[in-house]
Every structure is written in C-alpha cells, then in structure tokens.
Amino acid sequence: MRAVVQRVVSARVTVSGRCVAAIKSGLLVFVGVARDDDESDLTYLANKIVGLRLFGGAKGRFGRSVGEVEGAILLVSQFTLYGDCRRGRRPSFDEAAQAIKAELMYEALIRALCDLEVEVQTGQFRADMIIESVNDGPVTILLDSNRVF
Description:
Low-confidence stretches: none
Number of domains: 1
Shape: globular
Distance between the termini: 12 Å
Oligomer: single chain
Structural class: alpha/beta
Largest sheet: 6 strands, mixed
Number of helices: 2
C-alpha cells in the first residue's frame, strides 16, 4: 500500500456538489492499494500513519502525532498512486489492485485507523471527488508498505 500524507489545517471532500467529509487540523491521507497487498501491508500503514510525528511538540517541530494533538484523518482512496509513467506518456495501472480488492482493503484500513483511536473521515470510494485542503507547513510524506521509499 502507498500513501501520501499531508499535514493540514483543514480538508474536505465534495462529491456531486455535496460535502461528504471534512476535518480541521490533522492529516489528509491519499491511499492506494497494490495487487499483492495483504493484511500486513494494511497494519504497517495504519500504525505508521497514526504514529508519524508531524506536529509541533515541546522539543521541536516534529514532536507529536495526530492523536497526540487530537487531530483527525481524512482518508481518500487514490488508485493513481500506483500509476507507472516510466514508459510513454500514459500511466499504466497494472500494479494497482482491482476495485473489489481495493475497496475491501480501504475499508479495512478505515477500521484499523479507528481501532487506533483516531477520528477518521473518508472520501467516497470510486467517486469523482473534489478534494480541498489547506496544507500546514507544507508537510508531505510518502509511505510505502514495501518500503520502496
């Protein structure tokens, strides 16, 4: 699984002109699921997202996690994180999971994050979404459960 994690002052998801999710301070997380991802990838990513120290603390800029600052997570499914643009001009999505598997993994990640006692809001799976965010910092971190980066 891959994630793009952004520290935000606020973020929201709109589908068909209707706001379906919004958070104030916290993390906007775009997540993609690969064909071969399993529960270990999901557990790794959930723990890493919740444990990341991306917020100010007494000893420096990156001293506290989203839970420690009582922030929220806005989780948005984004299969394009597995777009491969190394050849040609059109991305290949061969490494992305099929929609059924991706949705099951996305829902399991939501549950895993909630189990870690963090407020979680979500986008709408397979919807054409408008994402608005006010980045804080900006702070953007890339995560990959296979530790590719």
